[in-house]
Known about the structure:
- The protein is α+β, with helices and mostly antiparallel strands.
- It is built from six helices and 15 strands.
- It has helices at about 120-135, 175-190, 195-205, 245-270, 305-310, 320-330, and strands at about 5, 15, 60-65, 65-75, 85-90, 95, 100-105, 145-150, 165-170, 210-215, 215-220, 230-235, 275-280, 295-300, 315.
- The protein has a ten-stranded antiparallel sheet with strand order 3-4-7-9-8-13-14-12-11-10, sandwiched between helices.
- A hairpin with a 6-residue loop joins strand 1 and strand 2 (about 15).
- The radius of gyration is 20 Å and the shape is globular.
- The model has no long low-confidence stretch (mean pLDDT about 95).
- It binds zinc ion (2 copies).
Amino acid sequence: MPELRQNVITKDWAIFATERAKRPHEFIRPDRQNDRLPAHKPDCPFCPGNEDFLGAEPFCIRDGDRWRVRVVPNKYPALSATGERIRKVEGIHRIISGVGIHEVIVEHPRHDLTPALMSIEDVRNILIAYRQRYIDIRKDPRIEAIVIFKNHGESAGTSIEHPHSQIAAIPVVPHQFRVRIDEAIRYFDDTGECIFCRNLRDELESQERIVLESEHFVAFIPYAALSPFHLWIYPRRHVSSFDQSTDAELADLAYTLKTVLAKLYYGLNNPDFNYTIRSIPTDETYTDYFHWYLAIVPRVSKSAGFEIGSGMYINTSMPEDSAQFLRDVDIPVL
Length: 334
Ligand code: ZN
Ligand code: ZN
């Protein structure tokens, strides 16, 4: 019989259709023609030699006269960096002027890499860029929330091949943030404990869904994962906002993130995926109830009408099986 599971953090329900369940290897992506990319593409705006195309860079990590990671303004921003935040109410409608920051993190000079194939040092540089921009952007009083995310591959929403991620700082707290925060506050008020810390303790105790443990982080598949191979990476230390991470934590997160992405890359043949870093809204840096984390969503299945109609998800892969599969993936030494 199928099983419905609820995610205690998000309150989302997922249906685990055990009769329709697939074995983990059934999610391996077939080879595609465009899998082989050139190391450098002369007409790519993110490749070395085309730096002037995107204008002033708010942040850059250099190694001599070569750059390692660059942050640049998004050429087609969803939000305008200039202007005032103005809220209006017209009848039942609410409107806020579209001010905010929308930047691209060019993750590496090479066109053909992805974090799964980069060195840990390269991934650490990307995380340092995220943290620095987070620290700088949060000073802007128009900003309420900062979303760091990566789209990899066409079904994850990008057609740009060059490895990149994005940071979007928005003038409002999204409803989805509010729901998670309200639940976390309720749990803290009832128990005096952070629900994420509790979740982490339970996962470590059961070990069934753990993919990787490092000194400062734990990667696991949530009990009620909404889609196959959906992964969460939690810091072991209770911290509410990503920008409060220490240098030692970022170095360890670089190892953890790279290793988990490499397990997906080799285990499922370079699947399209998104990841996002979830932090508390920028008005606060520390709370007892909220714990930042990184969520990875491989795009190995499609949601459809049922998901739209119910807000529930059908997952054809059992979290315990996909965690076991990823634990067993060996990463070749390059
Ligand atoms: Zn490029
Ligand atoms: Zn916590």
